[in-house]
Amino acid sequence: MDMFGTPPADLDLSLPIEPMKLDVIGEQRKELQAFISELLETHPTKLKKKEKDKLRDTYRQLLLNVIYNSIRRVYTGVPRGKHAYAPDSYWRSLGLTYSFTVAALDRLVTDGYLEQQHGFLDRKSGIGKLTRIYAKDKLADEINAYAIAEHVHLSHEAEALVFRDFKEGDPLLDRDHPDLQRLRVINDFLNGYNWLQKGPIRLIYNSDPLQGGRVYTRFQNLKRRLRAEMRISGRPVVELDYKANHLAMLIALAGEELPSDPYLDISVKTGQSRDKVKKFITVSISASSEEKAFAACRQYGINRDLFVTLRNATSELFPGVPLFVGIGKSMQSLEGQVALDIMAEGANAGIPVLPVHDSFITTVENELWLREQMSSKWRYHLDTTEEPKIEKK
């Protein structure tokens, strides 16, 4: 049965394990319970009752996450290092421990139900990457994965702050940290609304808590057509998008005049398509060196001559924009701070707002309000009088 398909090539298309439950009592739950019971009964060593209960809970969390995510072509991230499971860690808050998690992972991989991309920890630099897991079709032969995924419930009470690919366990933020305060306000308010693939708004930190995190909600993986058709508690929606947001933010931070469409300016100057320019800029903002950027650009059909042409045109048009210095994550973090402010303002005003990368969704009657908030919060965080370009999707 070809259900999950080939895992994505990009390992960053991943989400850390989250607390999940099945919201039905029926065949789906019976199938899952029977499958887990079989794994426990055939465990290579004899388990005491407490050990069996703990391993059962671990299997349930791993399987619910990997089924739900793999159907949506997203990896599930989980640590395999003992240091990650400290008493105050995010993973322990989910009820996971090192020994049972690794035992469950090894069994599911060995038996051919999951494939695994090992993570790592560089103790010298302190930088690490979570192990990524993805469901194999053998798992779908055992249980009705689609039926299970349709009835997965993501707990609103779950911690909304997630640390991914961190060193030596998770950093701790004070409960009065402004990110946590805004997340609580946002999630408490949005809990009273319903939408497709509802789940808590999360802030995912990558490798540096001082830079802030990127806002995420599960429905943003939906195709644009489905997002256009979705409803928030029965109300039709509108989606507004920042045009060329990361490049626009860098231009504003450099104190330069913001054009209507900076991608188009580079496109006209080089004679290349806007889409190819966008790919070049996205890669070059995130890459830590010019050679790494070129290596990544080659997959988009950008050869050395074209790469140099695009680089020179960008530098001539926008001399203050830094390329090849790995500033992409900082832009994602800044984008996250803007998003938190917009959504918190919505919660205070009684207006639901959902994030989709660098765009936002609200109900149609609040389109003008959202447009004004997107402009004002962007200008505040960029400390600029330049107006961001906002368009309706």
Explained architecture:
This protein has 393 residues and is an alpha+beta fold. Among the domains are: 14-155, no CATH class; 257-317. Helices cover 45% and strands 16% of the residues. It is built from 15 helices and 16 strands. It has helices at 27-41, 49-71, 90-93, 98-110, 137-142, 145-150, 178-190, 224-229, 245-253, 262-270, 274-286, 290-297, 304-317, 328-349, 367-382, and strands at 14-16, 20-22, 75-78, 114-117, 120-122, 127-129, 131-135, 152-154, 161-164, 202-206, 214-216, 231-232, 235-242, 354-356, 359-363, 390-392. Strands 12, 13, 14, 15 and 16 form a 5-stranded antiparallel sheet that branches. Strands 1-3-7-4 form a 4-stranded mixed sheet. The chain has a 3-stranded mixed sheet with strand order 9-10-11. Helix 7 links the parallel strand 9 and strand 10 (202-206).
